[in-house]
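Section handout 9: paired folding examples.
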Amino acid sequence: MTSTQAAAIALQDHAALWSMGEIRASDVVDAACDALVAGLDTPGLRMLAACTRAEADYDVHDLLPAALDELGLAIPPVGSEGAQEAAARALARRMLAGELTPREFTWRIHQRHGHELPLTQRLAELDDEYDVLEYGDRTLDQVDAEVTAEARRLTAQPTVPAEPTDSPS
């Protein structure tokens, strides 16, 4: 994966997490700055990256859709099942990167979606398993391994085009 592809995925993940209330608007601005540094460049991305922390809470809502659109990226409508799935995949990538433990990952998924989102139902069940480890015959390592396998399954599906479109120089 090229650095521009990784930056596009990171920006899209930040957008999904922000739309679900998982991260701050200033984190989206930071991701836009990282995308510019990685080589993605569009007028909308530059405007988004130029937001100050004070402006982010007010401006990201308006600037983000245009920046994503110019890059050929999208996030589903806030509150939709697609948006929930995008946020779950973003959290899975964070867990696989070591930013969350498997236990924290399942807890956040379970708290946000319960057992209702088909894509993450097994993760909610695994969160329940963490709660009863001392009474069962499974070990923490076994449950962690299954959570990691589920995270890999979630992230195996592409979330951005193979080559994000950059604006002409």
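Moving on to protein 2 of 2.
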Amino acid sequence: MDQSFYVGWGTLTLINAGIAQGKNRSGLNWFLLSIFLGPLATFILVIAEKKH
């Protein structure tokens, strides 16, 4: 595959970790989950409620 695919996927995992931390969730867990789920993990994070 093209190298830019891996760069984009890696960037998305970091963005998801940041979104997760902003919603008081584990950034590391969402980072690891995002490696496998990618854009689906982003969608789940966006619709998820913020933890209190």
